Amino acid sequence: MARSPSHLLHRVLQLALDIYAEESGSGGITQRQFAVLAAVAENEGVTQTGLVRATGIDRSTLADMVARMITKGHLERQRSDQDARANTVSLTPAGAAVLEESRPKVAMADARILALLKPSKREGFLELLADMAVTDVHAEPEAKAKKLKAAKAEKPAHGKKDKKPKKEKAAKKAA
User: Fold this and answer.
1) Mind listing the pLDDT tens digit for each residue in 96-109?
2) Where along the chain do its domains lie?
3) Cα torsion for 115, 117, 122, 127, to the nearest 10°?
């Protein structure tokens, strides 16, 4: 089991969720609720299908979550102007407040999770997770490669060291 990716991922997920729960407190929203609120904030009026894509939460679970978050007053749902069969989801002022209140707690949880790794391994860890998160396990190998390449192209440049040719680095060290 010590070399099983699925088992190790499960263990890491449990650890991450425990850290998140400690940081968010007993009255806080869950990690999945935060993901939904953040996705809606990034794309106000997103359809529920768009939320499935953005969060990775399966359609039926997401529908239940959205219904509960509507009941709590965090979200509101309306028929889409573009497609009468689809619902769009928007943040309410209460939902926006909960999201903003949760952001520092999530940032603290993320920092604690990354602190479990050596600093030199953190960026690589995040890149591996990002690569895996955009993978469609049902896609053909060529489609997977294209999707991964597109996701890497969209990654922000912040946090990356300036890539200089080895000769420039060697010359700088010698000086």
Assistant:
1) 999 999 999 999 99
2) 5-113, 117-162
3) -120
